[in-house]
Amino acid sequence: MAAIFSASSATGKTGARTMVIEANKSPGQKLLLTGGGRCNLTHLAAAQEIARAFGPKGRFLSYSLHKFLPTDVRQFFRKYGLESKVDQTGCVFPASDRASDVRDVLFTEAKKLGVRFIFSTKVKSIAKHGEYFTIGRAARQKILAEKVIIATGGLSYPPTGSTGDGYKFARHFGHTIIEPRASLVPLVTHEKWPSELAGTSLDNVKITASFGKKKTVLSRVEGIVTAGALLFTHDGISGPAALEMSRFATDFLPNEKKPLKITIDLISDIDETELERMILKQISEHSKKTVANILAEMVPRRISQILYRQLNLTAELYANQLNKDIRKKLLHLLKATPLSIVRTRPIAEAMVTRGGVSTAEIESKTMESKICRGLYFAGEVIDVDGPCGGYNLQMCWSTGALAGLSAGQSK
């Protein structure tokens, strides 16, 4: 996107001579993985809503988001023949459900504009001498450029090329790098029982975490609640609700001595009073039914068995034997199953990298470095990260477009 806006003459001026240096054999390797291969290319929301989703860093992103809106992104791809669709949550996908179509539009348009692509080439160094940057390549002739845009991504999914090189280049020019951490990543629990449920999912849960006196960078409140689907894994939890919680938890993990305490509302679409009424009705109408069978109608049987074990209940406990004390404990467990989070999965498995080049050192209206003129940043290499749902790709499009436009116009 940065290359397209740099090379484009849509501004009324001749586009800049633009080159993309790519370490991979082909472009858009990470893009192909987004949205489960479908590419959740943006979120249908106003620019200010997108900005708010990034927390305090949204102020830095506000200008770029207003310059290249979610509606602009959809119009951009429509212009080149790729229609999009919106699901019930506001997530926008290509109508074809193929991330490769998104990649192909970008690559084809860039080539039409004369962008030169150099593949299978790893940049070793970037230096500035006078008015020109020198880009060093392994055992090859150096490249000279008037402007450089670093759009190398973070540290997540390194096989796609996100190996943290952008941090090294930025640090060379004196930029501060906020420690990269895993975000939108599965969480690892101290308890071992989630492994017994690996592969089991729930469509709609709420996860509540208390950070005590600590407060996350993303929020000023001490308690955080995330909602959505949940998936149990071999060492913890994943799924949208857990991934969103990881954005807040990652700053305080790992912590083997003091894990992050969370509770999971396994039946979040029914409040506690209504759930108790349902259980009492089941007891009244099916007194000879085992509690295990009643419970299995509310949550998957594998989960009900775990809950049973935690309450030390016998398999042959019948509904008419369920006293008030046990009923209250069971009800509480359904609405607030406790877990202890000790760490996230490795950053290489994260959907997004949290941290990166400090926003305080980048001009928000151009994406140009405040330290080194002619140097620009775009995308995940910057210290901004948003929730699931197309927010992070929208940030990439907006900052990429602004960086490309700024660099191309100021040539």
Give the topology:
Blueprint lengths: L1 H6 L11 E3 L20 E2 L3 H7 L4 H10 L2 H10 L4 E3 L4 E4 L4 H14 L3 E3 L4 E7 L2 E6 L5 E3 L2 E3 L14 H8 L4 E7 L3 E3 L11 E10 L12 E10 L3 E3 L1 H10 L10 E6 L6 H14 L5 H6 L4 H10 L13 H12 L1 E8 L7 E6 L17 E3 L13 H19 L2
Parallel strand pairs: 1-5, 9-18
Antiparallel strand pairs: 2-4, 3-4, 6-7, 7-8, 10-17, 11-14, 11-16, 12-13, 12-15, 13-14, 15-16
Quick structural overview:
With 411 residues, the chain is of the alpha+beta class. It folds into 3 domains: 2-181 and 349-409, FAD/NAD(P)-binding domain, CATH 3.50.50; 183-266 and 338-347, Elongation Factor Tu (Ef-tu), domain 3, CATH 2.40.30; 272-337, Helicase, Ruva Protein, domain 3.
Can you tag this structure with a few keywords?
about 400 residues, alpha+beta, Elongation Factor Tu (Ef-tu), domain 3, Helicase, Ruva Protein, domain 3, 3 domains, 18 strands, about 20% strand, elongated
Description:
By secondary structure, the protein is α+β, with helices and mostly antiparallel strands. It folds into 3 domains: about 1-180 and about 350-410, FAD/NAD(P)-binding domain; about 185-265 and about 340-345, Elongation Factor Tu (Ef-tu), domain 3; about 270-335, Helicase, Ruva Protein, domain 3. About 30% of the residues lie in helices and about 20% in strands. It has helices at about 1-5, 45-55, 60-65, 70-80, 100-110, 165-170, 240-250, 270-285, 290-295, 300-310, 325-335, 390-410, and strands spanning about 20, 40-45, 85, 90-95, 115-120, 125-130, 130-135, 145, 150, 175-185, 185-190, 200-210, 225-230, 235-240, 260-265, 335-345, 350-355, 375. β6 and β7 form a beta hairpin. α2 (about 45-55) runs antiparallel to α3 and α3 (about 60-65) packs across α12 (about 390-410). The longest helix has 19 residues, at about 390-410. It is elongated and about 85 Å long. Residues about 215-220 have low confidence and may be disordered.
